[in-house]
Amino acid sequence: MARSAEIYTYESQSLVYAMNWSVRKDKRFRLAIGSFREECNNTVEIIQLDEDKGSFTCDPALTFRHDYPPTKLMFAPDKEACRPDLLATTGEFLRIWRIHEDGVQLERLLNNNKQSEFCAPLTSFDWNEADPKRLGTSSIDTTCTIWDIEKGEVDTQLIAHDKEVYDIAWGGPGVFATVSADGSVRVFDLRDKEHSTIIYESPHPDTPLLRLGWNKQDPRLMATLLMDSSKVVILDIRYPTLPIAELQRHQACVNALAWAPHSSAHICTAGDDAQALIWDLSSLGSTQEPALDPILAYSAGAEVNQLQWSSAQPDWVAVCFANKTQILRV
């Protein structure tokens, strides 16, 4: 591939929201993208960069219907490609899909509400890298559900917050954190399900926290986003309640964040100012705390709704805006 091309763009038929990178080493530059149509007629596309042609291809056989817009997509955390090729999506249910060369089949449809065929909408989920049979979902019904997806059974269900839970992130095999409309970040340990630790609370009561990122390279660090805020809050779990930094260079509300998969000091953020910014946090903790500036800025063509940093190819970040998915070499 010519080194000159630093950006590749794929255009979908409609607005896109959920998006993620494939993790498998035998599927370089493969992504899944979910449409955002406010109706029961959405689609998920699996696209692949043709490195020779320098453009994305979408095999129609690998495009499948998804009733409601997916709130999140994730490929199975299987770098070595030794297990089935799976993709998970959340909407009104958690669905596990198996990808074949010639099509995609629904492997499991998981509903955590045994009393009813209806399910409170799921806002997000995270797949446990250390224990890939475990997947945790967050819901507007205040609960989080930890699934054993090999058995298709609920492992644990917790009432996590006082209000809707908007995001969930694993920090280890049995530890996860959540953010909620009640404005708190809480950490849970599956060995002690009765208790949780509040790491942070919104300075303004009842300001929802929408997104949570747990730094895989330095598990002391987390990042969260407040609703309608242009700030990104960086937390150190050793010092609860007080942020160790606030990133304040976005000009409009921030919608997405992603820690670098290969470096403990870098994070990417993106928002309604159509900017994707990369920050170097290595100076945090130094005696003189300067106001941090991003080390890299990229201007997209519209408000950025989604951002994912590729763990298999850490030089590449993907963003979604309007009907476009773009991958950028960083």
Description:
The protein is mainly β. It contains no helices and 29 strands.
Q: Largest sheet, if any?
A: 5 strands, antiparallel
Helix-strand topology string: EEEEEEEEEEEEEEEEEEEEEEEEEEEEE
**Number of helices in the DSSP assignment:** 0
Assembly classification: single chain
Task: Describe the global form.
Answer: globular
Q: Which structural category fits the helices and strands?
A: mainly beta
Between the first and last Cα atoms, what is the distance in angstroms?
16 Å
- Low-confidence runs (pLDDT<50, min 5 residues)? none
Name the beta content range.
over 45%
The share of residues in helices is under 10%
The number of strands is 29
Overall pLDDT level: 94
Q: Round the Cα radius of gyration to an integer and report it.
A: 19 Å
Features:
330 residues; mainly beta; 4-stranded antiparallel sheet; 29 strands; 0% helix; 52% strand
Secondary structure blueprint with pairings:
Elements: E1 7-11, E2 16-21, E3 30-35, E4 42-50, E5 55-58, E6 64-66, E7 72-75, E8 86-90, E9 94-100, E10 103-110, E11 122-127, E12 134-139, E13 143-148, E14 153-159, E15 165-170, E16 175-180, E17 184-189, E18 192-201, E19 209-214, E20 221-226, E21 232-236, E22 245-247, E23 254-259, E24 266-271, E25 275-280, E26 296-299, E27 304-309, E28 316-321, E29 324-329
Antiparallel strand pairs: 1-29, 2-3, 3-4, 4-5, 4-6, 7-8, 8-9, 9-10, 11-12, 12-13, 13-14, 15-16, 16-17, 17-18, 19-20, 20-21, 21-22, 23-24, 24-25, 25-26, 27-28, 28-29
Short summary of the structure?
The protein has 330 residues and is an all-beta fold.
